[in-house]
Design a protein that fits this description.
The protein is an alpha+beta fold. It has helices spanning about 1-20, 30-45, 60-75, 125-135, 150-155; strands spanning about 50-55, 85, 90, 95-100, 105, 110, 115-120, 140-145, 170-175, 180-185. A hairpin with a 5-residue loop joins strand 9 (about 170-175) and strand 10.
Length: about 190
Amino acid sequence: MTDGLARVKSIVIAAREAHDVAMKPISLRPARTRFALALFGLGVAACAPLNTYYKPGANVAQVNRATTACEVQALRDVPVSTQVRRTPPRYIPPRRSCDSNNNCTTTGGFYVPGELITFDPNTELRKRVETQCMADRGYAPVSIPACPGSVARAAPVQATTTLPALNPKSCVIRNSDGSFQIVTRG
């Protein structure tokens, strides 16, 4: 039995060492790589639609407070339930290979361990409870598309403080400070 445990342990150690060598913490990457990743992230965020709860005439600060209150209520009513599962292991059968002189070698079979998967089965229910809470307060979930670059460049830089009525030509400009501006394309 000890031989089996030693073998398993040596397999785990070898796999861990190989894994540690391949991984590099982001802080060890060159500064230009971190800068490029940050710029890419900002660029993607600027092109993404604004998904928020909406009620025309509401103050943005009120929406943020209501959203936070509903998120807290949903978390209290439907708490996080982190589940950990392991996928089944796979057996890789032995392989036999022969050369032109009919000299054959067999490579032994082995098991590939299953992967660990972590998930929260309450995520969707928690989001529904949050959306219901916001609906009870008069807010509806919306997705406002990002404005084209020409519209964003033409608009003066400012932040929306009161939510305007939306129409099919409404779009959003994201500001560098995290605020946003909702405009109507002409």
